[in-house]
Description:
39% strand; flat
Amino acid sequence: MAPSSRGSQPSTGSGTPGCGTGDGRAAEGHGGVGEAFDDELERYTVAITLTNRVGESLRTWELEGAFPVRWTGPNFSASDQSPLVEELEIAHHGFKSTTHKSE
């Protein structure tokens, strides 16, 4: 994700589930997938945390003024053994990054 300049158009970033944690509040209040958004868009401060295999936090990105832009769901196929992948694109008005020290 590239940082955005404050006051300019929002930057966007995308991620893959399992690469971080979140509580899902960004999509809350907008109905389900495919339903229209209200005229007034709610923005959130969203934290994405990268963890290692044992769940220790390595790095956190805190997105300011974030909202969901696009969601792409997995393609299901009975003959395909590859993992299912979802993509969530998030627009935001800047972020700060924190690296966590391991003990």
